[in-house]
Amino acid sequence: MPLTIDLARTAPRDVAAVGVPVASDGPVPRALGLSRARLVELGFEGKVAQTLVLPTATGPTMIAVGVGSKRERTPAAFRNAAAALARAVGKRASLATSLADVDGAGRAGAQAVVEGLVLASYRFTAHKSERAQSGLSRVVLTVGANHEAAVRSGVQRGQVTADAVVLARDLANTPPAYLTASDMADRAEEIAGRCGLDVEVFGIEELERMGCGGMLGVNQGSVEPPRLVKLVYTPRNPSGHVALVGKGVMYDSGGLSLKPSDGMHVMMKMDMSGAAAVLATMSTLKALRCRTKVTAFLCCTDNLPSGSAYKLGDVLTFRNKKTAEIHNTDAEGRLVLADGLSLAVEDAPDAIIDIATLTGAVMSALGTRIAGVLGNDQTWVDRVRDAGARADELLWQLPLHREYRKLLDSNVADMKNVGGPYGGTITAALFLSEFVGSVPWAHLDIAGTMNSDSDDGWLSRGATAFGTRTLIEAVTGFTPL
After folding, report:
1. Burial class (CB in 10 A: 0-12, 13-18, 19+), 461
2. Which domains are delineated in the chain?
């Protein structure tokens, strides 16, 4: 059930719970009816995202939620506090809280509060025979007259952004039999119609005429046809032009380089998380009144083994006429992105971002909470990193070390599609750099961050839609380099 969020001066009498923000210093709100000493006895110190549930004999349950000291109140802190509050509500259906009205929140804090509430409440239940009992479905944010305009603006942006993340999570969590490349294209067309986007969908025949050998090669082993989707958002008098390219491998078995049958294999339905993040981002631009023209390419196909699958030793020719010798069919994401990036360059954007669950190496380097970012233009990479910081999606820059390019050398083609056992995230990015020319480009490798094993902060168990909010921040705040 969607979470509805309203604003009011005071908490309605019929809510099931009231969330009371408590700082780590200063007076305790009277509404709790407890002194600070008593709260400390109960283990509550007002630290960011601490919660304490206080049932009452009559009226709504009171929930103390920590907001720390004033210097700690960043948007990330408000997001995490709101997420903790949403989980503390449990199965109660309604909540009122003044969390977005706390000193230091402002527009960005209010946006973060909404994101935390929505994203922590997220559950994917489409294929459960018995749905979980209904939980939080209504939130009333209480706010004073002095802060109302800023909070209302932040709430609007927070709702649009959070809804986009929910869309991307739903797509990535959907089992592969229920979301093929054709299904993804259908969803993109439906979203384009609602959100003021131009859309083109390219199938096998079009991809053959276009020379998109990467898309076609990866798709050879599948009975499901590929789809390359182009989406364009064009505002009046655009302030710049950014291209987004998303890896949409709907299910990645590894092809003939078959993956082991373990837990990671199950999660390969999420190998289209990059395309999901791009599609979700495009869905927000009209509502957020983005002033940047944004062109997006979703590169969607399965990677499966069969008698017709592409083989080790094959040579593929991409849209920009470069060729690659296949040394590992499980290094397929870079092959589909090569065609998407080539097409993006042809539209002459000011900058490009690609996003992909590309390498296991990035997980070895950065774990499951930090994505890798590499690029050919430091100013643009820095802007993308700043966008990630604002979204609380952590990005760490890895070097695009040009000396490693020789690891991709091939005897029979322009390059191999893998560069050996070491530095895999870097060599994968070097491969992609062959298709962006001189256009400022940033590559996000989200393989480690695509999934969460548990509920934690704004993350809910399952697909995270990591990168969606970073992309929204990057394109809506874009100015020419």
Report:
1. middle
2. 4-150 (3.40.220.10), 174-476 (3.40.630.10)
